[in-house]
Amino acid sequence: xxxxxxxxxxxxxxxxxxxxxxxxxxxxxxxxxxxxxxxxxxxxxxxxxxxxxxxxxxxxxxxxxxxxxxxxxxxxxxxxxxxxxxxxxxxxxxxxxxxxxxxxxxxxxxxxxxxxxxxxxxxxxxxxxxxxxxxxxxxxxxxxxxxxxxxxxxxxxxxxxxxxxxxxxxxxxxxxxxxxxxxxxxxxxxxxxxxxxxxxxxxxxxxxxxxxxxxxxxxxxxxxxxxxxxxxxxxxxxxxxxxxxxxxxxxxxxxxxxxxxxxxxxxxxxxx
Length: 272
Fold this sequence. Notes:
Layout: H1 2-15, H2 22-28, H3 30-45, H4 50-64, E1 67-68, E2 73-74, E3 79-80, E4 87-88, E5 93-94, E6 99-100, E7 105-107, E8 119-120, E9 125-126, E10 131-133, E11 137-138, E12 143-144, E13 149-150, E14 159-161, E15 166-168, H5 170-173, H6 177-186, H7 200-228, E16 244-246, E17 269-271
Parallel strand pairs: 1-4, 2-5, 3-6, 4-7, 5-8, 6-9, 7-10, 8-11, 9-12, 10-13, 12-14, 16-17
Antiparallel strand pairs: 14-15
Helix pairs in contact: 3-4, 6-7
């Protein structure tokens, strides 16, 4: 019991830079308190003292804001950061070295008895506000984005974002030389943000850029062949498009001057 407690507290220092010392973590971290209560209530649950186990988990919920059913199985070095609003159902299973943030729900989608809550593998991270629902498997190393709603299994080392949750692949998100060239030509450069953080919207635009690049190559080849055959006259060069600026809503609005409805719009395509 005490070795498990040392492990649970020790993992906090690697996942929370605000943690300063052992005593502070032991006395002020509700995620640690919730796990400590759960270790005891889980033991009571499996020794047929189920009313007492539920009572203890309810006391823990009252003190910490974290609700963990005594029947849930939790592995080693489990960390709940902040913790308020976390709900873990009866048949949920959590592997080793997992991290949950506040507002996470590991819930069920059925009123039938039996396995109805998710299973998390090792090294899984579930972002704030995410909902993982049903008897699904979240494989080792998976990442669930904040506020995602996941109702399907997730493969190893994958990232899931959105409502409903969908996989985001890192390899498909990397910009190629062709994509950079066509993006520069049409004045779009937002795909660069996907190097560090998956973004399904930017991924969709990247696919469009790839398609435009291929269409451009085909059109140029057709025009060249027609010109060689004397079927077309020399055409003037197509002027470049005006650049389109896409400003993120997350940008610091305070740093920009207030929008004036009477101010005339600049030339080109600008979206804010």
